[in-house]
Amino acid sequence: MEESWDFEFLSRMVDNLVSFLSEFVDDWLANDMRVTVFKILFTWLIISLVAIHFAWKMYGNTVNDMYYRQGTGGQNGGAPDTAPHLSGWESAAGDAMKTHRE
To answer: What is the DSSP string of 6-63?
Structure first.
């Protein structure tokens, strides 16, 4: 019983895909302004993605090294360690750490 449902579902999906693709090809071949705008935007998207890919290929290690700074600190470089004379919870103004009193 489930096999017929799966086959029916797949058959509908394939039919919808074929229908969409045939309409897309018909619109693509038409010399319509809408299609021209789509072609321009699609070309711009592809060129941008290719440019990003090549830029990352050339400068990716540099960006990665700037992001993952070397030295002590938390993950990814983290915040710098506090000065040794100040507690991590004290402010730079020298206010003592506040405690909770019941």
So the answer is: HHHHHHHHHHHHHHHHHHHHHHHHS--HHHHHHHHHHHHHHHHHHHHHHHHHHHHHHH
Spatial separation of the C-alpha atoms in residues 81 and 78, rounded to whole Å: 9
| pTM for this prediction | 0.45
Measured CA distances, 11 to 15, 24, 57, 64, 78 (Å): 6, 20, 42, 47, 54
* Cβ–Cβ < 8 Å for 14, 7: no
pLDDT 10s per residue in the chain (102 long)? 456 677 888 899 999 999 999 988 888 888 788 888 988 999 999 999 999 999 999 888 887 777 776 665 555 555 555 555 555 555 555 555 556 665
Q: How far is CA 27 from the centre of its chain?
A: 31
Instruction: Show me where the domains of the chain are located.
Output: 3-69
